[in-house]
What does this fold into?
Amino acid sequence: MGEGVSPLFTAAPAVALAAIVAAAALVPSFAVGMAGGGLADLLVIFGLLALARAVLALAALDGGTGFGGIGASREMAFAVFAEPALLLIAFTLALVVGTTNLDAIATALQDGAHGLRVSLGLALVAMLAAALVENGRMPADNPATHLELTMVHEAMVLEYSARHLALIEYGASLRLLVWLSLLAAIFAPFGAAPAAAPLLWAFGLFAWIGKIGGLTLALALFEGAIAKMRVFRVPEFLGVAVLLAVLAVVFLFVSQGFA
Amino acid sequence: MGPRLGFGVFDYDLAHMLGGAVLVLSFGLLYQRRVSAVITLYAMQAVVLAAAAAWQGWVQGAVELYLTAAITLAAKGLAIPFGLRAIVRRLDIHRTIETALGIFATMAFGVGLVALSILVVLPVTLHAYALTREDLATALSVVLLGMLMMITRRNALTQVIGFLSLENGLILAAVGVAGMPLVVELAVAVLVMLVFIVFGVFFFRIRERFDSLEAHHLDRVGRAQR
It folds into this structure.
């Protein structure tokens, strides 16, 4: 650890992990309508994940090294484009279902009354793009890189070691799981058990493991097939996600606003 | 009378979804810069279009739409991409990367065009169902995005792909409406094949003359004759 760092540097990994754990507690996984369901607002979840990222970026700047600064500035540059995309996705879901509560969204989409919607398809594409960048996965960032110049997320945590690094790594893995659960809860809501029927939980757990397994497999295949893009092209990539989310909202206004 | 029109009816939802997928692939064409990836995306768009046509054939119980789907799949999903790849290989332009406008500006224009087509279609079809309206708006957007692609690209090959994707939009509009005569469909398919062949010859001529597929070289032709 560098000399002269502020207490923020040592506190950051724990704060980031705490925010991600809180988000993980809110995202419905194998059952809907659990105790935390009422708090599980999409905006709260996105906010918690943004908090984790902001704290790590501050800590990276606190270390005072060049790579930490590069990593932090890149991560924030990506966040500037990812956040509006996520807000627009939340807006789309709110227009379809009538609430931003994730639990209610998952329940409403599970019973299938809303059917297949072009807007939901567009939101899915936008959300996949945002999720890849948020988790520092392949086209935007390589979590297994050893080359400092191409690092984004890894450059921020170069100064950490030992238990702090373990917390950060654990947080990163947990964040990926949160995102996969989020995608599964919104876009593949089938199989989730109602909280009031504990006997069905085993089935829900099985379905959840299956969905997460499928998503991880898809992620692995995608990462294997694609090359990392230049850092300066990532904002373009996310800009496309924002535009697709805008398109989703536009289509919803056409079908709901004027119909 | 067919089944009830509205959201939540699976037949229409899926048709709608396929239309949306064609539109997203149009945006993909606008976004992608590498020639070989553009060709792949075009082939994917044609395959989704074929699926949309086949699904409409199933929903409307119209046998000729299956033929449309088969023609689309064979000609645009397989033959044309294969031919384009052969051209790319012979001209050795795999690595060509070019757009006249920035990607983000192009995409922003694209979203503007989609909004425009919605604004155009809405008042015209005020008495139609919401779904027909959205399908028409989607198809018109695909057409406009194809035109946008022709404008924003410098390379003659990607300009032709823009034209072909424009034609995909026309087919998408046609299959959504019940009772398009098959003769029209066949005529369009043959026309596209002919255009494709003409352009193929054209590429080689441009290339021979100017050593490049950049369309702005053609400006020199007019100037030389003046």
